[in-house]
Amino acid sequence: MLTKERNDLITQTGPGTPMGEVFRCYWLPALLAEELPEPDCPPVRVELLSEKMIAFRDTEGRLGLMDELCAHRRASLWFGRNEENGLRCPYHGWKFDVDGNCVDVPSEEPGFCKNVKLKAYSLVEKGGILWAYMGDPDKKPALPDWEFTNVAPEQRFISKRYQECNWLQSLEGGIDSSHVSFLHSTSLETDPLFRGAGGNKYNIGDLKPVFEVAKTDGGLLIGARRKAEDDQYYWRITPWVMPSFTMVPPRGDHPVHGHFWIPINDENCWAWSFDYKSQRELTARERAAMEDGQGIHCKYVPGTYIPLANKRNDYMMNRKAQKAGLLYSGIESIAIQDGSLQESMGPICDRTNEVLAPTDKGIMMARRMIFKAIKNLQENGDLPPGVNPEEHQIRSASVLLPRDHDYEDGAQDATRVRPGEPHVSV
Fold first, then answer.
1. pTM for the whole thing?
2. Rounded to whole angstroms, how far apart are CA atoms 166 and 172?
């Protein structure tokens, strides 16, 4: 459990908050590249870390991310005209470039706008994502170097969904491997992106995993150990890299998937989800399943990134399927099985009343690491773990190891990135 003060410290990410300052040390996924598909396309509203902004791609293809409200009378620039290398407010014609500079005020003399500027942040495209850096420009790190961003577009699939709760309870679900044997148990053999893997039987056969956690430069390797045949253990190894990257251990030859949980504000976050194969293109069947909301993805309310199954329709709960054992939780879609329970904890989980168990070892260690990063940044200006792109070179793994084999040695070897080679998987 946490005290209210500690819970507030780790969950609040707005401007000027300690955890918000930690998040502002990183490049954060802000938009899918498809949301700004071409020069002079319509602008898009963006809210991250409780800051409301507008993003656009100008006539020359340059990307801009700046305050949503016009400097003049504070009208939203979402209504703006994206034209001739700038976004023009339709109210009085004030125009801003991708750096937030006011470049034209038609009703005034040319020199009027030289001291008018909106707050603007860096926005760059890599690997199908538009990444935002919202921190000190003098401390801007190198671009993210996650393996899935470096493979060909034909080898990856990326989605995002709106989640109505704080980022931390979402992340903690991502580093908790024990719930798979319950919440997702019926989906392991029905979902087309999970079924048929050799390791599934161990998830179902051993409901009491033992956790071992190894530290890395960027975060943790969280290992869940289950009993297997021939004096072996089945290990599912989940990397967590600060602040909110996780990768799900692979199953057979299915695509490997992972997440980022990025705060929109303190009560909502974006659940980013990616699938990729390091050594081959996704098959047409795999991609079709992802587009249909299978695996860790979901179906949407048309025209939005809001899940079709959401709290307003009780996540399309099917009590008959739950009672019949067809769906353990009564909810379809692995993504929504997770999201429904994480949202049910409330907008911000009250951790003063929680009771943690030994299977929550990874969660406890992650919290301690985050609190240490907050303290070191506040007191010494030390950049937190996970900023250095070298720390992004990590994989998840599922592996059978002899019972006397050292977990940390096995985990470090299995999670090493080997470009063009498949993940270690069972």
1. 0.96
2. 11
